[in-house]
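Intended use. Records like the one below are meant for learning the mapping from a protein sequence to its folded structure. Do not use them to infer anything beyond what is encoded.
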Amino acid sequence: MFLTKPTFYYIIGLNNEMKKILFLLMFPILCFGQKPILFDSLTVSNEGIFMYNQQPFNGIAFANNKSGVLLYEKDFENGKEIKNRNYYAAITDSTPHLKFETQIKDGKRNGLRKGWYYSGKLKFEGHFKKGWNNGSYKNWYENGNLEKESFFEMGVKVGSYKNWSSSGKLIKDRYYQKTTPTSSKLVKRVKYLESGEIISKECWDTEGKNISCD
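Structure written out for the chain above:
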């Protein structure tokens, strides 16, 4: 088994969050069983297939920034990118700090995409299909409390869109109604104090006219 260069650093004694990051680094290597190579070592065929030694590449390709710190990794299967990982790549980093991880299909975001704070805490998680937001999308504060939750259908915001305060209290709730295959309209918005008391409540029809919320 081969590990990318950054995964050799300080494995013992890391906190749980950093161990999770290292697991994410090592998991693709365990699956592919191949030493990572520099991304610039790959060539691209006329069909858009990434090649290495004149063969469709299977494995992990990586790139470092000018300071030699890991910048990104890309996983390939039969010459096609299936996942990528981007790192904060601070000049002072001796261990990698994962920033984004994205599943890819046919060159577009497809499946789960996740992001992390520099501390290793989860920052967001969203689902994609053919490059479009599709399904739930959530954001978290660094303290672990949920910040936002929204829903999409092929890039169109639909249903409930909620915001919470950093202390975990619901402070805003909106509702979007799909009007065409490519658009939606805000039809309801409610604002709250952290105590739960309603500050305001507004509703509209799909033409934008104010209507009763009852």
